[in-house]
């Protein structure tokens, strides 16, 4: 499997949306990619639990918690369920907990913060709705790529394999070698 760097994708694809938030990386997968599924936190995450129990191969869950940092929206139990069902990764617009346990799992998780107290889990939340944060629209079905540099969302119907990375990498390398050149990417 070829790994695509978010920085190279941004250089090669002007339409790629780069999330403007700085995330903490957890789990053994520091880079992951997949089709977006979304959950919006609305006082509970029951719908997230049910979704993560479905086969997740080729999918990334985006949890929009409105930037909630005083309660964890995701922890080791949900990460274990996600890993067991083959999810590629999880992006949390909010806090998570159980960092040490998640770091030992074969899953990638991006979050804004770590806090020990969990959020309310009784209510359901909204499933597969477009959510926005960090200057990016996370639409169900769009392709998300994440690595240590950040999170990028591609236009609907576009995959990282559709993007010619080589030309952008070569242009950056040429620019670095010759201070007289102007970068056009």
From TrEMBL:
Q: Which gene encodes it?
A: rraA
The record's Gene3D superfamilies line, in alphabetical order, gives:
Ribonuclease E inhibitor RraA/RraA-like
Q: What keywords are annotated for this sequence in UniProt? A: Lyase, Metal-binding
* Leader sequence segment: none
Q: What does this protein do?
A: Catalyzes the aldol cleavage of 4-hydroxy-4-methyl-2-oxoglutarate (HMG) into 2 molecules of pyruvate. Also contains a secondary oxaloacetate (OAA) decarboxylase activity due to the common pyruvate enolate transition state formed following C-C bond cleavage in the retro-aldol and decarboxylation reactions.
- Please describe the quaternary structure of this protein: Homotrimer.
Q: Which family does it belong to?
A: Belongs to the class II aldolase/RraA-like family.
- EC number annotated for this UniProt entry: 4.1.1.112, 4.1.3.17
Listed InterPro entries: RraA (IPR010203), RraA/RraA-like (IPR005493), RraA/RraA-like_sf (IPR036704)
**This protein is called what?**
4-hydroxy-4-methyl-2-oxoglutarate aldolase
